[in-house]
Amino acid sequence: MWEREQRRIPVVVQGASRGRAAAARGLWVGAEAAVTFGVVVLLLVVHQLWWTNRQARDGAERKVQALERQWEGSGGEAALPDAAAEKVPDGVAAGDGEVAEGGGIRGGGGDTSRAGAGDRTPSPPRWDQAYAILRIPRLGVTAPVAQGVSKGGVLDKGYVGHYPQTAQPGGAGNFALAGHRNTHGEPFRYINRLRAGDEVRVETRDAVFTYVVDKGLAQTSARDSGVIAKVPRSNVRTDVGYTAPGYYLTLTTCTPEYTSKYRLVVWGKLASMRPR
Fold this sequence. Notes:
CATH architecture: Beta Barrel
Largest sheet: 8 strands, mixed, barrel
Distance between the termini: 108 Å
């Protein structure tokens, strides 16, 4: 009897050892998988929050420099766009003056103003083409402005996108722009910090237009096309916006940060214009 029990003991011990070894291997494999998954997630976060910003900012900076070189080498005396040259808007100074005394959204519309000299009506900017420079001194932002608001062709390059069918810089109506708030250069990350009276400058080959921030909308629907209309006024918050035609600038971006559920809007009015 005693001998039989002695013979059984090793069998039980070996089974328990194999069970513990299998459990240990399972825990090890699980730990390795968790670490690997964590590293992959970390790399994705680094790619989105750091690498895309670095790439986009470098590319946007090179494009700004290329535009400046192109304009400097164009020669000749620049002329204000027809919308500005033919009739200076009431309350707007032509030259270096200030305002004179007395005076992602989906959809939207408005006439595209002409941008040439004399009776010429040039072709609109090519889709995804960078053709202007946006400067926001308060935020230290300098970014190229391109036609269209596609992600791959415009916004993910760190550019600011011009909503098609809204006014061109300095034109009557609403010059409406979109930009990323997070990742891919995030040029509009801090536009919520803009206050009434802050300047926003838009430079083209022919002229420099200075807009002054007037009001904003902290949050609205991504489908609130009223904020980029010719006379900008929210379709959601109908008490926010404008009621009369003018020369407006609209900046739009996603909110809250790291989401695209809503839109943040900043509006400005044209204050001055001058030839380059």
